[in-house]
Here is the input.
Amino acid sequence: MTLLTIDGLQMYYRSDDGYVRAADDINLELESGQTLGLVGESGSGKTTIARSIIRLLPDNAEVIDGSIDFDGTEVTDLSDRELRKQIRWREVSMIPQNAMNGFDPVYTVGQQIVQAIRYHEKETSKREARDRARDLFDELGIEPDRIDDYPHQFSGGMAQRAMIALALCLEPRLILADEPTTALDVVIQDRILQTIKRMQAEIDSAMILITHDISVVSETADRIAVCYGGRIVEQADSATIIKNPRHPYTLGLRNAFPDIGDEDDDLISIPGTPPELVDPGEGCRFAPRCPFAEEECWEETPKPEEYGDGHIVRCHRADEADLLREQATEKATWDGMRDKVRQSISRGED
Amino acid sequence: MSHDTTTEGTDTASEGADTISRRRLRWERRLAALRNWAGILKADRLGQIGIAILAFFLFVGIFARPITVEFGSAWFQIQPFSLAPHESSARVADESLAPPSREHPLGTTSLGRDVYSQVIIGTRVTLIVGTIAAFMAVFIGANVGIISAYYGGWTEDILMRITDVVYGVPFLPFAIALVFILGASLVNVIAAIVLILWRGTARVVRSQVLSHKQRPYVESARAIGASDFRIMYVQIMPNVLPLITLYAAFAVAWAVIAEASLSFLGLGPPGMISWGEIIYDARSAGALREAWWWVFPAGVCIMLFVMSVFFIGRSLEKVVNPDLRHTQ
Here is the structure.
């Protein structure tokens, strides 16, 4: 069953210089119970996409076009009050990046979970809500008695677990996990991810996992969508994205992560910087950094095209993927690009 | 999500124990907070002096004259003690402007009234005006600060421009005009003080809320579906409460000075003697030079009271801002 359908969403930020096109023509589908990984560098629009589902955006954000359909409800048409009462937390909850600051310092963690439960379920007694919080703590591997502690008494990993408890307390149908493990060390990271995964399966909810770490999503997500410059440039099931990517950006991204099995493997970074999103003009936004860019790429925005089994790519040269894949593993391909980027920068300064 | 069904029998017993320990935990926390303040106070001699003086004035204010409550024709005294030997307006001596004597420890006024009694009874008005005006001012100021910072935009523009305007209003001319137009009464005196005094709290609370508004916990609350009202008063307000308390303490001192100033100018609540009023009487009787016993006690009381509140405020400031604890 399709839980979430985002169709042609354009979410822009108003600024003094004009609109910042943070999310441009986004198409996404999410089945219930499924996990979608949103990958991309900072400023690629992944957070904007996820947050627009619960409209948790700065005041200057504006939906220009498109629809967000959450299980038959058009979210963009809801009033703030309806959104608050019906969608936020009850249906869609969020695990923020920095859990430590995600709790109000003046209340105990337990009080905050109880408040959240009773805010949406008026009929639940304080005692029941507390018991539920204790059960959740127990399942997440925290001593249940610690619900009476204040947030500052928790360690980073524990605070993140407590945040997960808060996100799960109403058994929502969708969890937005915004880089939930970025603030933690690698060992804890893995354990937290396992815990999220297990609990998610238990209450059968879907999840959107936002991260810049492709290794994190590859083992957690069913599907991966790669964002670049406010657009989704490629989406497919995880195995396809990892093994058979077609978009040059995904190819570059894959190079930039270390492979533990290959000792001699030098990391290859993608030259250049992310694009300016104020008035970016026509054309593929990755073109200035793409070693395979042709004239067409600069002039015409590539349309999303499907290459079998839900593998959707936005690239003019996606049908030459086998060739690109081979060339992309060579350092020289990207190094050549590096000089070009440098030239274009110095040209811009003249 | 229930994981243990086997221990159901013992559940009720352990739950009972749980609530008791929880209640105890909460009380222990409150006690610890109190002890924390007491600990800071222990090393803070000025804070101790402040509390002692304030406690003394409170005692005097409450027991100055008997307090009676009337129900139609029936009445009873809820506080029968009287520290002041005479009514403030009673003519107790034939000799006017008598210097201190055994009978009248602080001498008499030009109308033969007992200054000692007047000073004691004047404490009451000072305390009433000081606390009521201060708390009303801080209440208004805190709300203006929270609302303008939280909503921003035109709400903030309007509220903060009003605050700016009030900042431009000099207190005494404003109060004189207001009391002159509306007439001298306790309510009008308090109103004049409140209408000016809220501005400082509004600005300071606003700047604090502006910073708290950006913190992730506010965003979490929004994601949970909390309403604006709830975020402002349940989530943010407790975080700025220590600061509000501090400003309340300073507001009390300021309100007392303001009341004394107004009374000194003859704009005090009529029929109620206050410290400022005593000095006003002395001045209008032309006795400021010769009758030191008439003027001095009230002046010293004003000074001591304001000083005690500032001392307490300083010690509160150390609780609010731990950085200050090490500077001495």
